[in-house]
């Protein structure tokens, strides 16, 4: 298993998209933090809520995490490299498991990198403008932990979706459409039939709840994590079974 | 060593493999032959646990591939040359596979040198020629120093020099005692390399024999030239032999030369030429496989 995980890590690092992931995180995090601080009223910058919002910019790592999760599974089918992968590990569930482990670890790295950008830009800036830095407050540290775990959940969801769908384009486009259109539509329909409560159980509504920022009609934190894990387990099991049965031709 | 028993696999409407059985003996190079679409790749992928057969089974080294411990150290496979991430360098492709198989980094450099790819190892596979990709595939198969090699059309995309190089490599690998199963749709490509052949057509076994047996099994024909060709033709036809005239005035008959000679002597017909025409391997192959391909 360690050998497979090392191999998966090498796979991620040895293609150019790795550098694109890192560049996008650095760039978007920097823009987000600068935007938050630059656009805030000077008086608000010392506030707890504002600084919590700074930490929340790390949430963009989640989107990159799910893209990574989907890609590390589907790219193998797309390029045919699933053949050598299954030749070296004919018990295919071990390949999917290694991808889940490494995908989760790399997603955690993405979130930490984004956090680093927040601290590296936010702290000196806030100090420069004479605002009080509260990033080590208990509640803010809790939010940091929640954001890191959120990136891990999104990566795992990506691996599970990738294993179920297997086609790279369909998985990426389908997931983005589902997140931005599909669920909103279902939430609307559920509202029409007076079943609003059910919408919190949708996979990405659950993931939303599991980033700790809260929101209307969402589960609270721990139930959100639990429902997310449920979806990941369900899709992961389906995807693993599909990968096991598939004829690799 | 490799055993395929009553293997069947259908994809949609296509019966790719239909009740195929054959054995590959240890320490031999076996050619796995058939026209395109005969079911070679499906069979090889079933042997390697990549395709789930509908019926029958395949074993390598006595067990299904899936049950092999550290499979890359027992069986090396070269399937399609395209099964590489185009953005990864050749060396990194091998490192990925070596890491998964628990093979040392130094072995990566060894196999790169063995397939003469060291100079291009840093380049991304996107820029490789088909021949270079085939060699990268061979390097991948050799990472674990396996005792069994399964190669699907490894000569595809190789130029004549490359085919010669491949032949020499396969010979030296076989000389080390390895068992090799190599598929091809061109008999001539492997005829000089293999000890035995397994010929399939439409998913079924056509022949399993040594190369010498295949040639011997081919029916020869007799070529005859005579100033009295018309007379001889009538005589042969009367004797029940098939005769056809060729464009250059010679006759081709399925009667053995002894019979033709006796007939002409008995009837006072002069002969200018009486030769046996052995069918070439390629003709035998075409005859065995009905001369058709799916292309």
Written account of the structure:
- The complex is a heterodimer of chains A (249) and B (295).
- With 249 residues, chain A is an all-alpha fold.
- Chain A has one domain.
- Helices cover 79% and strands 0% of the residues of chain A.
- Chain A has helices at 2-13, 17-39, 48-56, 60-79, 82-88, 92-128, 138-165, 168-192, 196-199, 203-209, 221-245.
- In chain A, helix 2 (17-39) runs antiparallel to helix 4.
- The longest helix of chain A is centred in the middle third of the chain and has 37 residues, at 92-128.
- The model of chain A has no long low-confidence stretch (mean pLDDT 94).
- Chain B is of the alpha/beta class and 295 residues long.
- Chain B contains ten helices and 13 strands.
- Chain B has helices spanning 40-47, 90-101, 105-114, 130-142, 160-175, 187-191, 211-217, 229-238, 257-267, 281-288, and strands at 2-11, 14-24, 29-33, 55-60, 75-78, 148-152, 179-184, 196-201, 204-210, 221-225, 243-245, 251-253, 273-277.
- In chain B, helix 2 packs across helix 3 (105-114).
- The interface between A and B is medium-sized, with 27 and 34 residues.
């Amino acid at each position: 298993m360690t050998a497979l995980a090392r191999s998966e890590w090498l796979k991620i690092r040895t293609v150019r998209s790795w550098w694109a992931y890192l560049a996008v995180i650095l760039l978007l995090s920097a823009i987000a933090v600068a935007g938050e601080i630059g656009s805030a009223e000077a008086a608000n910058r010392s506030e707890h809520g504002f600084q919590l919002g700074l930490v929340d910019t790390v949430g963009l790592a989640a989107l990159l995490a799910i893209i990574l999760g989907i890609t590390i599974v589907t790219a193998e089918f797309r390029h045919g490299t699933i053949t050598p992968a299954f030749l070296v590990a004919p018990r295919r569930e071990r390949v999917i498991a290694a991808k889940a482990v490494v995908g989760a670890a790399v997603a955690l790295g993405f979130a930490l990198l984004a956090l680093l950008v927040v601290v590296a830009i936010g702290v000196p800036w806030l100090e420069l403008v004479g605002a009080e830095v509260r990033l080590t407050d208990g509640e803010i540290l809790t939010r940091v932990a929640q954001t890191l775990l959120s990136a891990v959940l999104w990566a795992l969801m990506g691996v599970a979706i990738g294993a179920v769908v297997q086609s790279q384009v369909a998985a990426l486009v389908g997931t983005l459409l589902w997140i931005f259109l599909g669920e909103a539509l279902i939430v609307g329909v559920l509202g029409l039939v007076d079943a609003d409560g059910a919408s919190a159980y949708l996979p990405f509504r659950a993931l939303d709840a599991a980033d700790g920022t809260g929101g209307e009609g969402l589960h609270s934190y721990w139930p959100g994590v639990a429902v997310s894990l449920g979806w990941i387990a369900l899709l992961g099991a389906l995807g693993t079974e599909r990968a096991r049965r598939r004829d690799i031709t | 060593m490799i055993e395929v028993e009553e293997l069947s696999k259908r994809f949609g409407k296509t019966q790719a493999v239909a009740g195929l059985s054959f054995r590959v003996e240890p320490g031999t190079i076996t050619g796995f032959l058939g026209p395109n679409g005969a079911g070679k790749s499906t069979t090889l992928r079933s042997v390697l646990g990549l395709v789930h057969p509908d019926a029958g089974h395949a074993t390598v080294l006595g067990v299904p591939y899936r049950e092999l411990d550290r499979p890359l150290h027992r069986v090396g496979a070269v399937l399609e040359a395209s099964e590489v991430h185009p953005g990864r360098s050749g060396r990194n492709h091998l490192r990925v596979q070596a890491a998964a198989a628990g093979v040392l980094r130094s072995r990566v450099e060894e196999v790169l040198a063995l397939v003469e790819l060291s100079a291009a190892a840093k380049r991304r596979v996107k820029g490789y020629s088909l021949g270079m990709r085939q060699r990268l595939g061979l390097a991948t198969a050799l990472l674990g120093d396996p005792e069994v090699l399964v190669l699907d059309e490894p000569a595809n995309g190789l130029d004549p020099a490359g085919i010669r190089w491949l032949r020499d490599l396969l010979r030296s690998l076989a000389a080390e005692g390895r068992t090799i199963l190599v598929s091809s749709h061109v008999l001539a490509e492997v005829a000089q390399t293999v000890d035995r052949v397994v010929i399939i057509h439409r998913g079924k076994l056509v022949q399993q024999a040594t190369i010498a047996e295949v040639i011997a099994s081919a029916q020869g024909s007799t070529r005859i030239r005579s100033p009295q060709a018309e007379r001889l033709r009538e005589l042969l036809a009367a004797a029940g032999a098939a005769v056809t005239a060729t464009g250059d005035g010679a006759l081709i008959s399925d009667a053995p030369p002894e019979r033709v000679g006796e007939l002409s002597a008995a009837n006072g017909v002069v002969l200018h030429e009486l030769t046996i025409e052995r069918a070439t391997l390629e003709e035998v192959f075409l005859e065995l496989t009905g001369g058709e391909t799916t292309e």
